[in-house]
Every structure is written in C-alpha cells, then in structure tokens.
Design brief:
Layout: H1 4-7, E1 15-18, E2 32-33, H2 35-43, E3 47-58, E4 63-72, H3 86-92, E5 106-110, E6 125-129, H4 130-136, H5 141-144, H6 157-164
Length: 188
C-alpha cells in the first residue's frame, strides 16, 4: 500500500476501468486511466463511478472526489483474437524462453527461420532469450535440436487474460480488489 501522503496527489490516483459487466478491460496491462481521463469520461457520461479515492480535485466552484473504479456504461465486446504483437507473444509464452525457460533478455524466434520462408505468425514465433535465439540461428528446430516447450498457437483474448493474471502489478488499490482475480495458484 502506498503512503497516504503519496495517494493525495492526483497523478497517483489512476482509475481501474471495468467493462459494463464489471470485468477489467484487460489484466495485463491492467486497464487503468489517468485521473484526468476518468474525470473526462464521467463528465461525458460514458462511465459510472463505482468507487472513489479520498483525494479530491478542486475548481473555483466545486470539489470532486477522484474515481478509483469506473465501469463503462456501454459494453465493449472484446475481440476474440488479440493482435499479433511482440508483447502478446511474450504474454502467450508467459514471459519465458520457450527453449530454456529463463525470463530475461527475451526476443522472439521464428521456428521456421525467415531465411527459409518462415512467416511472422502466431504458429511460427515463440519467445526466446537472446542466447537461445543466437544458438538456434537460422536452423530448423530439428537441426538445432531445439524444440519449444509449448507448441505456438494463436491465443484467444481469454487465454491472454488468464496469462496476464499471473503477473499482478506492483500496486493494487484496495478498492480494486473485488474486481480483480489474480491467479497465483495457476501452473506456469
């Protein structure tokens, strides 16, 4: 928990953004808005305030408590499949090298190297640490005797959310707890 003096500064008061069904829009990164964006959405009547901080912002005519949790008034239907990005590949692979299992210095590796016609697609790319990526180089997995721990597949948004819950942020405000489900019991 942050010290109370730090929490009184508006810039330290982000709002957790929930969909209309009271589920976070995303877990990783956690769906947060700055206090300015949250207040703007309130005044544009796009969100409901679910919970508030003790911190207030003031204008000459009124004081406004900053929202700590807001829910969208209109449900946003999540895409079934996420965009192919480096970050989403790492999230799918749980931020671990698919060859040796370490969680640092990650790059991504093409199972079928691009030099051999391999494409940059969900089923041909895995997270790999730099040493493993260099070791495999432009070789096919069998020739390099390097096989990924998990077969690469196109994940659903649900699968990425599930993986994202394995990595809770360093700070969670008490008012967010009822809406977040961090699965520390999940197997890696």
């Amino acid at each position: 928990m942050q010290p109370e003096a730090v929490m009184t500064r508006p810039e330290n008061c982000p709002a957790l953004v929930l969909n209309a069904d009271f589920r976070p829009l995303s877990y990783y990164p956690l769906s947060l808005w700055s206090w300015q964006d949250a207040i703007k959405a309130v005044f544009l009547d796009r969100v409901n305030i679910v919970s508030e901080y003790e911190t207030e912002v003031h204008s000459p005519s009124f004081a406004f408590r900053l929202p700590s949790v807001v829910s969208l008034k209109n449900y946003v239907c999540p895409a079934k499949y996420p965009a192919f990005t480096r970050f989403n590949v790492f999230l799918r692979d749980q931020f671990r090298c698919q060859y040796c299992g370490i969680d640092s210095d990650l790059t991504f590796d093409h199972l079928i190297p691009r030099s051999r016609g391999g494409l940059t697609t969900w089923d041909n790319v895995v997270a790999a640490c730099s040493p493993c990526n260099l070791k495999k180089g432009g070789k096919m997995p069998k020739a390099a005797a390097m096989f990924p721990a998990h077969k690469p597949v196109r994940p659903t948004v649900y699968q990425l959310h599930r993986n994202g819950r394995r990595f809770p942020p360093n700070y969670l405000h008490q008012s967010w707890q009822d809406y977040l489900y961090w699965d520390s019991e999940l197997e890696p």
